[in-house]
Design a protein that fits this description.
Strand content: under 5%
Order of helices and strands: HHHHHHHHHHHHHHH
Helix content: over 70%
Number of strands: 0
Distance between the termini: 24 Å
Length: about 375
């Protein structure tokens, strides 16, 4: 579908003599994305199955780039954004119904749900949250519709995040609020309005902190010995041995890595644990930067960090433009922050999650870029 949409868009713009409008005017982002593609392609040949690795390059990188360009081309005005918000809210409602029917079960080692896994679910809602925030800035003609969508989406985000039992999702939400507030404070004029805005942000952060602490208590009560507090459970997390193994393997091959999407990495990784549970269920570093370093050495880590940094910088450069571009830029920075943090405690930057991220970034950057309408 994305290929057909891309071909249709190219045909329409070529026919109208406006093909240049499809070309991104952001050189840093183009370079970073190109480096991501080229490095992953080269390192695919270091994998035992180069063709399979190249198919992952196609699925995770090329398809994500195509999703970015399609939604960049299709999103230019507030009306375009309201259309996507309506669709995304509908999808979020469906996801919320799924997790209400089957909430996170801490006793299930591998829970097979309609929404696949809690990790994927929380990655989706972190990605969609900044997009849905754009409904707060709808035109007057869509004010009632936007208010309805805002209330529904907020309730669904809170319910789905709570029932996921995940702790990181609340950190991501809080970080997105803080980063958007920090960069958006210049647009708030007047001492009284500034204090009012600060109070709203503090209350929101307090609510998010309360949800996170409750999630920590829930995890401690259901997954730790009786009497273990939330803080003690957090400090006894299994990530320390996971990170230790990850750094050991990176030091062994810091430059060459072991090949992009090399399936043998998971087996080698798991075999280094002494704890049976970790040996059976942990096959990756649970960190996107470390996983890229395991596959492509230091070059891989630099490439993925450069991708997120270039995208954040591109959104940041749109803030001085003002108006819709500024609002989209703020939401774009929040998007990059949230998705990056979500993948620092696990790695869900693949398949439909990275494709969705590409589409979301394309929507927001399309809004932030002034272009004439298609003739």
């Amino acid at each position: 579908m994305l290929v057909l949409a891309g071909l249709a868009i190219i045909f329409a713009y070529v026919r109208a003599g406006q093909f240049r409008q499809l070309l991104l005017p952001y050189r840093l982002l183009v370079v970073a994305t190109g480096a991501w593609l080229i490095v992953a392609t080269i390192w695919s040949f270091l994998s035992p199955s180069p063709l399979e690795s190249l198919s992952v390059v196609k699925r995770d990188i090329l398809t994500s780039m195509l999703a970015f360009m399609v939604f960049y081309a299709l999103t230019r005005t507030r009306a375009d954004m309201m259309r996507w918000i309506s669709v995304l809210t509908g999808g979020l409602v469906i996801l919320t119904v799924m997790i209400v029917r089957e909430p996170f079960d801490p006793q299930a080692t591998l829970q097979e749900s309609d929404y696949l896994t809690v990790g994927l679910l929380t990655t989706w809602i972190v990605t969609v949250a900044p997009l849905l925030t754009m409904s707060l800035f709808a035109d007057r003609r869509w004010r009632r519709r936007a208010l309805f969508l805002s209330v529904v989406s907020l309730l669904c985000l809170l319910v789905s995040a709570w029932l996921s039992g995940n702790r990181t999702v609340w950190i991501c939400f809080a970080a997105m609020v803080v980063i958007a507030t920090a960069f958006g404070r210049r647009s708030v004029h007047g001492t009284r309005l500034q204090w009012r805005s600060a109070a709203i942000v503090l209350v929101l952060l307090a609510v998010l902190a309360s949800f996170m602490f409750a999630a920590m208590q829930f995890r401690a009560r259901t997954q730790a010995p009786a009497g273990t507090g939330a803080l003690a459970f957090l400090l006894n997390d299994n990530r320390a041995p996971i990170l230790q193994v990850a750094f050991e393997m990176i030091r062994e091959r810091p430059l060459a890595g072991r090949g992009y999407d090399n399936p043998e990495i998971g087996d080698i990784f798991a075999a280094r644990f002494e704890t049976p549970w970790l040996r059976n269920y942990v096959h990756q570093a649970h960190n996107i930067v470390l996983n890229y370093a395991l596959q492509m050495g230091v070059t891989g880590a630099i490439v993925i960090l450069g991708l997120f940094a270039a995208l954040a910088w591109t959104f940041l450069k749109r803030l001085p433009t003002g108006g819709l571009a500024r609002l989209a830029g703020l939401c774009g920075i929040a998007l990059v922050t949230g998705v990056f943090l979500r993948n620092m405690t696990d790695d869900f930057f693949s398949r439909h999650t990275v494709q969705f991220f590409g589409a979301a970034a394309g929507m927001l950057l399309g809004l932030a870029t002034h272009r004439p309408p298609l003739k």
